[in-house]
Specification:
This protein is an alpha+beta fold and 158 residues long. The protein is built from 6 helices and 4 strands; from the N terminus they run ααααβαβββα. Bound molecules: FE2/S2 (inorganic) cluster. FE2/S2 (inorganic) cluster (FES) is lined by residues 83, 85-88, 124-128, 131, 133.
């Protein structure tokens, strides 16, 4: 990270903290906003947040790592979300998830080395009646089988 990027992160972090710190329980809203701004929660933001909210660095770090939706590095160009909630699990979602991990050679929350695809679990996409389902970027897909999922992955990799 060069010094300018670091300055930007610090300035943006402080602006966000100042805007949200009067909320009750401001830490999660601050982390969500940082992730919206940067696509991830920068490591350099954590000590600033701790100082401004009067928390220890360990407390802030603990919250970031507890909630899997927070990432500490940028996401890939595409995000593939596989539903892991009950209705999908009972309709083949587990096999679909295993297939995605195998084809991409990724574990959850990881990104392919070429930076193209990030794999995320999601817990219900509102498509339970057409389970199993997944989402590629903003697009929802129901009644997916392995071949269709492979085709989606191929499309994202192209
Ligand atoms: S459980 Fe998968 S979409 Fe609802």
């Amino acid at each position: 990270m060069n010094i300018h990027v670091k300055d930007d992160v610090s300035a943006e972090t402080l602006a966000i903290v100042n805007e949200l710190k009067s909320l009750e329980g401001p830490l999660l809203p601050i982390l969500h906003r940082l992730q919206e701004e940067f696509g991830f929660v920068p490591e350099a933001s954590l000590p600033l947040i701790a100082r401004e909210l009067n928390l220890s660095r360990a407390e802030v770090h603990g919250v970031v790592t507890f909630y899997h939706e927070f990432r500490n590095h940028p996401a890939g160009k595409h995000t593939l979300r596989i539903c892991r909630a009950e209705a999908c699990q009972s309709m083949g979602g587990r096999e679909l998830a295993e297939h995605a991990c195998k084809v991409l050679d990724l574990d959850w929350h990881e990104t392919t080395p070429d930076g193209k695809i990030t794999l995320e679990p999601v817990y219900c996409l509102g498509l339970c009646s057409v389970a199993p389902s997944a989402q590629l970027d903003g697009e929802l897909h129901g009644r997916l089988d392995r071949d269709e999922l492979s085709a989606l992955i191929k499309e994202a990799r192209a």
